[in-house]
Amino acid sequence: MSDNLFEDDDKRHKKQRQSRELQLLTIRNIMKTENGRSFMWRSLQNCCTFDNIFSDDAIKHSYMAGARSHGLWLESELKDAAPDEYIMMRKEHLDE
Q1: How many CB atoms lie under 10 A from the CB of residue 77?
Q2: Cβ count near 81 (within 10 Å)
Q3: Both ends of the chain: CA-CA distance in Å?
Q4: Domains in the chain, number
Q5: Contact 31, 83 (CB under 8 A)
Q6: What is the distance between the alpha carbons of residues 85 and 35, in angstroms, rounded to a whole number?
Q7: Residue ranges of E strands in 5-92
Q8: pTM
Q9: Each residue's pLDDT tens digit, 42-88
């Protein structure tokens, strides 16, 4: 019985690793193209990732904080999956 539990855990972990690898591969494929990097840059900007989100209006501040939280998550995913392309993306858009 306990061997089955270990096998089930191994299968679950293997499936999780495969799922994560597929997620990272998807991001790498998007970041390979200039259009993909441009879309990701716009997404990061739309999430206020690089902005000061402070507002005296608590509702506006909460909204902006949620958007920025998502942007920071996306930025982390991009850095994990495609660090060189992330740097290239920044250069492409900050040098404009």
Answers
A1: 16
A2: 20
A3: 62
A4: 1
A5: no
A6: 12
A7: none
A8: 0.86
A9: 999 999 999 999 999 999 999 999 999 999 999 999 999 999 999 99
Give the residue carrying structure tokens 């994990």: 80
> Phi and psi of 77, rounded to 5°?
-60, -45
pLDDT tens-digit map of 10-23:
889 999 999 999 99
Tokens of 93: 């858009």
By residue range, what is the domain housing residue 45?
2-94
| Among candidate residues 52, 28, 51, the one with its CA nearest the CA of residue 40 | 28
Length of the chain: 96
Q: Which residues contact 26 (CB under 8 A, 6 or more apart)?
A: none
Report the amino acid identity of residue 42.
R
Q: From the CB of residue 89, how many other CB atoms can be counted at a distance below 10 Å?
A: 21
Contact 72, 87 (CB under 8 A): no
